[in-house]
Amino acid sequence: MSASPCESLNKDFVVQIRKEGSCRGIAQMSGEGLSNQYSLLDLNSPQKDVVADKNKEQSFLEDCEELQRLKQIFPKSECDRINALVNAKKAHSAVAEATALLETLKGGHFPSSPTEIGHLRKSIDKNIDKAIEEAQPLLSSLPSLLQELGSLQGGEILTGDYDLKLKRQDYFTKKQDQVISHLVSQRARSEFLSLLYDLELRCHKETHALLSAVTQVLTKHLRGWQQRKEDLEDPDLSDKKFQGSVVDARDTSTLRMFHLLGDFESDKDLLCVQKQKVVEKAKHLYAQHTCAKAADQTMDEKYMNKVSQLEVCAKECEEHLYAGSSTSSGQPMLSSSEIQDAIASLTNSLAALKKDITEVILNIDKKKGALKSNVLQSRERELFTLFHTNPERLEYIVNSLAERSKASDIQ
Description:
The chain has four domains: 1-24 and 49-160, no CATH class; 161-240; 244-323; 370-410. 79% of the residues lie in helices and 0% in strands. It has ten helices and no strands. The radius of gyration is 72 Å and the shape is elongated. Mean pLDDT is 76; it is low at 1-6 and 21-43.
């Protein structure tokens, strides 16, 4: 069921009253809405501000006097207005009644007998008396009501269903309490978070202070270590500065080592032995030792490769020699003389094979030289090769030669 416009207005008015009742005085405490009451005092002409304040006070007193005058004349003016409205209603009612009577007369429905007219008049008089009786209490209470309304000028009056308004007021009060509880809880959460943030910020500040102190201490130590390192690397402060570069004549062990490392031609005319010479000889001897060790390792690897190859060859020779033969006691054992005879015969066979291969190569080279020197033999060799490898090419060559011979005969 939708609310009427009157109820909506009443609802808005009740909400406004509740807001003003619950929050009254807060805006005044904060100074909101009172900016026109504050002004800067001009030091050059301070009397202007005083005159302005006096004018405001005078206008306020005039407004109060005007309101008091309106309250005093309100009952009489309101009574006159109500009497005028009543007289207007009476006139409208008389006009309407006269119009209805004329319509009745025109339509011929008006009673014609005196008895019916008398009864109609009595009923109308009775209704008029009843209306006057009902209006008399209202008219008697009208002056006091107008007097009361005059005192209430400048204020607003609630009208409508008061039970509904009270229920709505209770509803808004409950909702307002819920809103206040939510706001209180939200403010508590906000203050708790602010407290936590402050604690965390303080912890971060302490951590930052500690890290800054540690950084400063470590930087100081690092600078100290760098300074010590520079001092140690300084040649003027090194102990090597006080060490001699020549071997002492009483140091027989170093001199003996110098001669053991090897004598060079440039060492014959030396009056004294320098330590740098001993170091250079030691490095040279170490380099020779490294080279000899590497060469020895290389020779060992070559020797081992040769031995492994000989073993493989001996295994292959043994396999070819036995050729899969077997006896009841296994493969027969060979004596050293038999092995030597077999190796000698194999060496002779290899030499004869090498000689035959050399002769074949020399014969082929002679034939190649003859073919190069004799064009006809070269052509014959080429045709012989084509006869076995490409007969079609040979046939094509023969046909071309035949055509050329015919052409020469014709000419």
